[in-house]
Amino acid sequence: MKLDYQYISKLLDSALKNDSNAYAELFAATYPSIYTFSCTFLQDEELAKETLTKTYVQAFSSLYQIHDNNIFVLWLLKINCLICLEYKPIEKPIQIDNANYSISQLINLPLSESLSLIMKYHSHLNRFTIAKIMDISVSRVNQSIANGKERLMSI
Amino acid sequence: MKRYQLSEKEATKILEDILEHCELEQNTLSLKTLISYSDYRKERNAFQKRILRIIMILFVVLPFLFLGLTMNVSKRESRYLTLYDLKVKTYFPIEKISATIDDTPMAIYETSDKNYVIKVTKNGTMHVKVQLWNRQYEEQQIVIDDCDETPPALLSYKKEGNLIYLYVSDDQTGIKYDSAYALLEDGSKEKPIEIQENCFVFKQSNSTVYILDHAGNRLKIKLN
Q1: Which of A55, B65, B155, B174 is most buried, judging by how many CB atoms fall within 10 Å of its CB?
Q2: pLDDT digit string (tens) for B165-196?
Q3: CA distances from B120 to B48, B94, B101, B212 (A)
């Protein structure tokens, strides 16, 4: 999708002034990514719709918490991921390169590393899809995965 | 991967629920309108911008595509050869140069930047064509009638003992005296025993004598 983050910043400023059109535009800009993430994570479209509503309600209620507007999509994905886990907890460990890690270990990684690894090793998405969902480049996805693995190994 | 997509109706309903939960007013611009504007996308108007850029470049480049050249073909003074100087004036690189007489290509040598020499080897109408990389070209036709195409002529000969005297002449470029030789049956070459003005003295043998003029035309005489 490649969002224009300068424009997103303006929308966030307007949203904080209770401009409902700005909220609507933020939703329009991001919901396809969040919905795809939910669906691939939960494998249930109806449940994904529910998590989508919950995600935006939670996000819009705490917009003031964002300090870096450039990670708006990642921030939404993280909220959505946590909500998805409430709906469908992951008991089994996630296998990454012959090692097993718990979902909480992955969740506690930095934002892009955490999401990249979850999408890659839990939802089994390819790097192009991950890049599209996260609105970042494929090389940044690769970097995030590599960094995330390194960090996990050092734990 | 399966493509997950919310219908417009579903998305609108979800947005309504979200705004209601957040105790916000409903949006006045419909979701459909906001999606169609897609102001939040980086690549908005990217296609139009690209087209505009191409048009601008074309406007700048277009005049250059029609810039031509000037060429000047003039005869060069040469004692033996028929040579023509070709001077091309252009700011563009030259793609192709050709000089032909009755479809026979003439040799062209570059002497300096955009200056050439054409070596003419036959009479007729010479077509000189210079083409630039932008496909612009210039043509010129020159009638050539002073090219030496005739080999030296054998005027007479005489035998004296073991020697044979060959009297030859060439009215145009003249005889190239050091070029004369006799080709013997065994394939070896033999130079004349003596060279006088217009006269070559060879040993009497079964051989073929070759005498050239300065234009490269060759006289062939069989001795036996």
Answers
A1: A55
A2: 999 999 888 899 998 999 988 888 899 999 98
A3: 56, 21, 9, 17
Please give the full DSSP string across A18-77, using - where no structure is assigned: T-HHHHHHHHHHHHHHHHHHHHHHHS-HHHHHHHHHHHHHHHHHTGGG-S-GGGHHHHHH
Cα torsion at A98, A100, A106, A110 (round to 10°)? -40
pLDDT band at B201 (very low <50, low <70, confident <90, very high): very high
Pick from A80, A102, A83, A99: nearest CA to A91: A102
Compute the average pLDDT of residues A43-53: 94
Is 90 exceeded by the pLDDT of residue A61? yes
**CB–CB contact A3 B44 (8 Å):** no
> CA-CA distance, B86 to B142, in Å (whole number)?
12
Q: What percent of chain A has pLDDT over 70?
A: 99
Q: Which two three-digit tokens encode residue A82?
A: 């946590």
Q: What is the pTM of this model?
A: 0.55
CA-based nearest residue to A93, from A85, A83, A103, A84: A103
Dist CA A125 CA A79 (whole Å):
19
Q: Do the beta carbons of residue A141 and residue A130 sit within 8 Å?
A: yes
Contact A27 B26 (CB under 8 A): no
Predicted ipTM beyond 0.90: yes
Residues of A with CB under 8 A from a CB of B: 1-4, 7-8, 11, 18, 20-21, 23-29, 31-32, 35-36, 39-40, 45, 48-49, 52-53, 56-57, 60-61, 125-126, 129
Quick one: angle between helices A20-42 and A5-16, nearest 10?
120
| Residue B143 forms contact with A (CB below 8 Å) | no
Q: What are phi and psi of B62, to 5 degrees?
A: -50, -50
Task: Give the model's confidence band at B141: pLDDT under 50 very low, under 70 low, under 90 confident, else very high.
Answer: very high
pLDDT(A2) > 90: no
